[in-house]
Write a structure and sequence with these properties.
Number of strands: 4
Number of helices: 1
Distance between the termini: 28 Å
Helix content: 10-25%
Structural class: alpha+beta
Shape: globular
Largest sheet: 4 strands, antiparallel
Length: 60
C-alpha cells in the first residue's frame, strides 16, 4: 500500500483541500483522487496527486 497526497487550489493559489489517499497502485490512487474531486465538485480546480515527489495526476 502506497501513500499519496491530493492537494487542490483555488484560483488565488490558496489550498482548498489536502487529503491523504492510500492505494495499491498509481492507477488506483488516480481513480480514488478523481472520485474525491468529483464528490467535492473540485474537478475543475487546479489539483495534483503525488507519491514520494512523483506527480500522478495534475490539472491546471
Amino acid at each position: 500500500m502506497f501513500e499519496y497526497f491530493l492537494t487542490v487550489f483555488n484560483p488565488a493559489g490558496e489550498t482548498v483541500l489536502e487529503k491523504r489517499v492510500e492505494a495499491e497502485t498509481d492507477e488506483v490512487a488516480k481513480a480514488k483522487g478523481e472520485a474525491i474531486l468529483a464528490e467535492a465538485n473540485l474537478l475543475e480546480h487546479t489539483h495534483r496527486l503525488t507519491r514520494s515527489g512523483k506527480l500522478i495526476l495534475f490539472h491546471r
